[in-house]
Fold this protein.
Amino acid sequence: MSEVTIKQVRAYTVRGGGADYHDQAEGHWIDSQIATPMSKYPDYRMTRRSFGLNVLGTLVVELEASDGSVGFAVTTGGEIGAWIVEKHLARFIEGKQVTEIEKVWDQMFNATLYYGRKGVVINTISCVDLAMWDLLGKVRGEPVHQLLGGPVRDELTFYATGPRPDLAKKLGFIGGKMPLVHGPAEGEEGMARNLSKLADMRSAVGEDFWLMYDCWMSLDVNYATRLAQGAHEFGLKWIEEALPPDDYWGYAQLKRDVPKGMLVNTGEHEATRWGFRLLLEMDCCDIIQPDVGWCGGITELIKISALADAHNKLVVPHGSSVYSYHFVITRHNSPFAEFLMMAPNADEVAPMFNPLLLDEPVPVNGRMSASALDKPGFGVRLNPECPLSRPYEH
Ligand SMILES: C[C@H](O)[C@H](O)CC(=O)C(=O)O
Ligand SMILES: [Mg+2]
């Protein structure tokens, strides 16, 4: 098995679908009015596509091994990611043994330090890394969670992200995280609307159901603190990504100033052990939320998670479907998982990466048994009906 090497890496782009902001069709809730750092510009307030949320599109990395096995992964990165893989990273991947994941990661990261570290470069490195874990699982005939040490519980439990926590409750989820709609530029009227939406949702779901607000980097410390204080009486469980990711000092202050018992969570736009070290050492939050397709892949998430554990913090990865499920089920400090409601009206459970992936497991009644993940690699296939394009063949 250790003789099996990577023969070829191929990087593709594909349009349409994909979780979170790959490229959703018009009218999807995820592209309705959501508070963002661009909401201060009325021209870019009503949809996230208006300021280009979908411009990157999806990157697909495929690895073919000398024994004929094929591993793959998808993330946000599109053409830029495809260029980086084919023109730069391929040299560190092809010819390596399928087990040399740590070495390939280190070479990719260090060779791109002069233009990388974060953003689309680390998304791309994440995608190659996930494809390597998928390939290793396929070569060995084992699911990725077994390669990571095996499940520590029999099932995953999920909260749902979307505008309808009331429906999420009926579908069996343990909580619902709504996107915040109005940012600071909409003043006190916007604040009142944000609070009244939460109040309405609290009446709809009753007392014990978790309700959270995802603020997608849109607030400042003052607004976020006032929102948290106003939301306390409606039992807001956590306030998420309230500030821009670089404002570690603001997060530390917010965490000190929110009402006792309310959690401050963040990290989906943070990357690598060094970025998370800042969040942890500066005591910026209660739960870190790395996205495994953006933070450096599984190889880096292992390190981030160990660091969080040593700081007594939980790790609840952002979205990302099977790529995070295989990790979460193996970690004691990841007690539940996120499910992004990708049905356009958030009224039913739809596979997160639909239509790109086949065999993608989804929670039933808010839960997923470990056995649903018992297929080699990440257990998913690329849908042959989604046309791939390979713009930069090397
Ligand atoms: C809806 C949110 O603003 C975002 O697109 C998803 C997200 O941040 C999350 O799932 O967390
Ligand atoms: Mg979020």
Summary: Residues 214, 240-241, 268, 318 surround magnesium ion (ligand 2) (CB under 6 Å).
